[in-house]
Design goal:
Elements lengths: L2 E3 L16 E5 L4 H9 L3 E2 L10 E3 L3 E5 L8 H9 L3 E4 L3 H10 L11 H12 L3 E8 L2 E11 L2 E9 L4 H15 L5 E2 L5 H5 L3 E4 H8 L9
Parallel strand pairs: 1-2, 9-10
Antiparallel strand pairs: 2-4, 3-4, 5-10, 5-11, 6-7, 7-8, 8-9
Amino acid sequence: MVYELDEELWFPNPIHGEPDGLIAIGGDLSVDRLLLAYYYGIFPWYSFRDSEEPYWYCPLQRFVIFPSEIHISHSMRTLMNKGRYRCTFNEDFDGVIRNCSELRYNQQGAWLGENIIEAYTELHHQHLATSVEVWDEDKLVGGLYGVSIGRSFFGESMFSLVPSASKLALIFLAEFLVAHDGGLIDCQFETPHLRSMGGRYISYDEYLSIIHDEKTTENK
């Protein structure tokens, strides 16, 4: 079932959603609504050319990366050891989100339009959205961004202008989270790229227990 949202801040129980995770349509992209959504693992994802209203998703099998399980291939270690690229946090959020948008803007179903950019930039201004940048000297060549709440990171998008730059950003993020007792990286949907780096499925119940910092008998 797909619910129609109104001006009130609420979301339906995700267990009543569609098999693909779609649970609701409508509402807005205000900071308060986005924070409520992420608290339950819900996120907006829709083609801005095809709909003026947000579509909200919450898959019940969650594809995540536990930071301590990040897979670093031999070729990636070789690249990292060369020291050509450097990684930073929050030095160019606008550059990261704009590159993520521009590289996919003309694709069918493109979702990272101005409304999403404005919403997540506001989250960034309130220290709730984070970017990871990959630099070749002073040129931005890759990165990712997402929402940071508590010990968890909810990934939104990534980009590479040179081979493996987004992988470097993800590894840098995972290593930071390991060092700071991070819970998980929510990947939203499975891709071969993310699976190759250690992504796997967990249940929605386990996922909620982790992002809410509750004790769980299942462990990574």
